[in-house]
């Protein structure tokens, strides 16, 4: 069953009766955001900008499911749509909705609406917990303890969309960026914090929150993924008992700590196989597997093919894209 806190495909009107198209103003804002992203990309890919933590993304075609790790960020879409699978949850977002990730999450994503005539266009703003905490000073810190899912979709208000447009527009006046970009980013955080998923957003910065404690455990797993996993040690780090850690971890990531570790190991092994031309056994041992057979079995379960066959397919697809 989908998690009760997340919003799936957004269409029609939200729970307060707001129209998701936001009227003509939102339509005009989306069009301007799309024009700005097109102008500052011009081709498919993800592009860094002179605004710290801001990336612009363009894709002219839909994709097959891609396994990756999403880092904390806000994604606001100007055109096209995407679906992200996290455990048994799925999040669909497009124009008039935004996607927020508050902790590192291994997900499967797929572009479901994009074409050469109408490419997928979005902006991705990396999240800074310290800046979120600063934004929260003096704000009501309700929901401070219970862990929240580490990803959500919410309706993009005209005010949030306006701030997004102004942030990308600053790329046309580089001299203004150091002075104005921090203010606009702060406004974006504020608009999201005031949305229907504001409680989950605040969890990112609250030092004692369940989400922030799980974030520390996630950071440790990502750092030491090739080492044996000791639940008791991770639980002590989170100031929880083992059963409490398991419950909170699954609440945030939709995965158990062991499932999370497996996803991180397998995705790193896939990267090594592509980048360093290792054989499957070497890649397995590099990421912490003691059994190459178990590695191959779990690799095929996640990626759909055994390691060697999967890497061959990926390389053939890359050659076809270049041609």
UniProtKB/TrEMBL annotation:
<keyword id="KW-0804">Transcription</keyword>
<dbReference type="InterPro" id="IPR009594">
    <property type="entry name" value="Tscrpt_reg_HTH_AraC_N"/>
</dbReference>
<dbReference type="GO" id="GO:0043565">
    <property type="term" value="F:sequence-specific DNA binding"/>
</dbReference>
<feature type="compositionally biased region" description="Polar residues">
    <location>
        <begin position="1"/>
        <end position="10"/>
    </location>
</feature>
<keyword id="KW-0805">Transcription regulation</keyword>
<feature type="compositionally biased region" description="Basic and acidic residues">
    <location>
        <begin position="15"/>
        <end position="24"/>
    </location>
</feature>
<keyword id="KW-0238">DNA-binding</keyword>
<protein>
    <submittedName>
        <fullName>AraC-like DNA-binding protein</fullName>
    </submittedName>
</protein>
<dbReference type="GO" id="GO:0003700">
    <property type="term" value="F:DNA-binding transcription factor activity"/>
</dbReference>
<feature type="domain" description="HTH araC/xylS-type">
    <location>
        <begin position="215"/>
        <end position="313"/>
    </location>
</feature>
<dbReference type="InterPro" id="IPR018060">
    <property type="entry name" value="HTH_AraC"/>
</dbReference>
<dbReference type="Pfam" id="PF12833">
    <property type="entry name" value="HTH_18"/>
</dbReference>
<dbReference type="InterPro" id="IPR009057">
    <property type="entry name" value="Homeodomain-like_sf"/>
</dbReference>
<feature type="region of interest" description="Disordered">
    <location>
        <begin position="1"/>
        <end position="24"/>
    </location>
</feature>
<dbReference type="Pfam" id="PF06719">
    <property type="entry name" value="AraC_N"/>
</dbReference>
């Amino acid at each position: 069953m989908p998690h009760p806190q997340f919003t799936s495909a957004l269409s029609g009107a939200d729970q307060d009766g707001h129209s998701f198209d936001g009227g003509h103003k939102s339509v005009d804002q989306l069009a301007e955001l799309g024009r700005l992203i097109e102008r500052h990309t011009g081709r498919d890919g993800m592009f860094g900008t002179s605004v710290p933590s801001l990336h612009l993304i363009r894709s002219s075609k839909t994709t097959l499911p891609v396994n990756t790790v999403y880092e904390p960020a806000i994604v606001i879409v100007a055109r096209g749509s995407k679906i992200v699978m996290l455990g048994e949850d799925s999040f669909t977002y497009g124009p008039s909705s935004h996607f927020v990730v508050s902790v590192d999450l291994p997900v499967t994503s797929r572009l479901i609406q994009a074409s050469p005539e109408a490419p997928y266009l979005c902006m991705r703003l990396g999240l800074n917990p310290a800046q979120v905490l600063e934004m929260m000073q003096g704000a009501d810190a309700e929901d401070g303890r219970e862990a929240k899912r580490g990803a959500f979709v919410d309706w993009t208000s005209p005010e949030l969309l306006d701030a997004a447009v102004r942030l990308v527009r600053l790329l046309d006046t580089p001299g203004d960026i150091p002075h104005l970009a921090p203010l606009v980013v702060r406004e974006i955080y504020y608009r999201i914090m005031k949305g229907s998923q504001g409680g989950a957003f605040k969890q990112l910065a609250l030092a004692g929150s369940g989400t922030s404690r799980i974030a520390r455990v996630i950071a440790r797993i990502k750092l030491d993924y090739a080492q044996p996993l000791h639940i008791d040690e991770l639980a002590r780090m989170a100031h929880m008992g083992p059963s409490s850690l398991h419950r909170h971890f699954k609440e945030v990531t939709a995965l158990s700590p062991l499932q999370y570790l497996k996803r991180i190991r397998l995705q790193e092994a896939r990267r090594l196989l592509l980048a360093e031309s290792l054989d499957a056994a070497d890649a397995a041992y590099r990421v912490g597997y003691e059994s190459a057979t178990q590695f191959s079995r779990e690799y095929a379960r996640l990626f759909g093919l055994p390691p060697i066959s999967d890497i061959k397919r990926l390389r053939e697809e890359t050659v076809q894209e270049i041609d």
